[in-house]
Amino acid sequence: METNGQRTIWILILTSLGFFMSMMDSMIVTTASTAIRTDFHISMTTLQWAMNAYNITIAAVLLVGVTLGERFGRRQIYNWGILIFTVGSIGCALAGNIQALVGARIIEGVGASVMTPMSMAILTHALPANRRGKALGIWSGIGGLALIVGPSLGGLIVARLAWPWIFWINVPIGLVAVWLSRRYLPESTGVASRLPLLDTGLMMVSLAGIIWSLSALPGLKPIVIGMGSLALGGWLLYRQSRVAEPMIPLSYFRLQTFTAGNMATFLLYAAMYGVVFFLPQFLQAVGGANALVAGLELLPWTGTLVFVAPFAGKAVDRFGEKKIATLGLALQALGYALIGSLNNGHQAYWLMIIPLALAGSGLSMAGPALQKAVLGAVKPAAIGQASGIYNVFRLLGGAVGTAVAVIVFNWFGNTSNSAAFTSGFRAMMLVMALCSLLGIGWSLQFRISTDD
């Protein structure tokens, strides 16, 4: 007979697995980027959509996924998310060109958009309050582990097999996860609200249009499409101000800390995703590393999460969100600036280790501080919706940051040779450092009682 302890373990494993898979797929593709670009003979501008299609889809669909779970059952929607994600993974693995890969990444993103919020909701609802905090800490740590092992695992798979296998590995895991979830996860529902399908469509089309326009500039066509996308975004905001149950309550943005925290989050992850798109390619194209070595060389950056994150949470409680978020953004900016200013393409890798560790420490500090600032700015009843908005800003920042990084790289360099690649890479790193510094301007605007 199954005990309460066994039941808790199964719930924790299965909810963490979905979170881990969705986070993993945003990172595992980074060390495969060079192989994908080479196989498909595409430019950096086109390649970015292998990442951005996934992130934009999650950002646009995430909030409607929460609504579906509350109405039809959190476990049911969670399982559908894993199944759709698995189907998308099969499409990615079978893709014969970048268009097919992007389409399959969109399908993956639809599935992933419900996996994270539903896994958190199931875990929170299933456990008593006295065990919830510890379980959520483990859940967050396992998701964060994907940021560490994702690039290294992707590099290992590309080096030993081929890049489609970074997607094939999702298939057996996804199918087993659905089967086990149906057996071990409890079902629960919440307050049913309207399904914002039109608003979700408007968000996806407007975001994709804006980012495509940025990447395609200059020219009349991207300007026209960009203006049209902005108009759709304006219509979305108008609708949100008029409906009784908005997907994005605009009243939250009257709270200074909520707005500042989301903007700082946007800039923090814009810088991070821009760097993670290019750094593995730089290590391969200029440093001569294969995909596996490039993934391992990212560990001074991603691996700091293990050492810094536990202390960062305690530091936020002691010193306040403003100070820790500001320090974290400053460290990330410093790390990126050092890599961009000192790297001439001929330096030994070991000279990048300290700057990478500084940047990783900054991200590990600023991330939880910003999340706490955003969620702490609203009333407890609004935390679920505020969390969804926070994640939209995080993912949207990543998509915009990747697009801006590609623009800067193309302005100052290209992929024709090591010198040209280094020139574009250095400029990109300095701009990403600037994004982090701009985030400080927002973090300094926090009004948090623990920091007053």
Automatic annotation (TrEMBL):
It comes from Lactiplantibacillus fabifermentans T30PCM01. Coiled coil: none annotated. The keyword Transmembrane applies. Residues 11-451 form the Major facilitator superfamily (MFS) profile domain. One of its GO terms (cellular component) is plasma membrane. This is Major facilitator transporter. It is found in: Cell membrane. Its main location: membrane. Gene3D superfamilies: MFS general substrate transporter like domains, Multidrug resistance protein D. Keywords: Cell membrane, Membrane, Transmembrane, Transmembrane helix, Transport. PANTHER family: BLR6921 PROTEIN, MAJOR FACILITATOR SUPERFAMILY MULTIDRUG TRANSPORTER MFSC. The keyword Transmembrane helix applies. It is a multi-pass membrane protein. It comes from the Bacteria. The chain crosses the membrane at residues 9-29, 49-68, 80-100, 106-124, 136-159, 165-185, 197-214, 220-238, 259-279, 291-312, 324-342, 348-370, 391-412, 424-444.
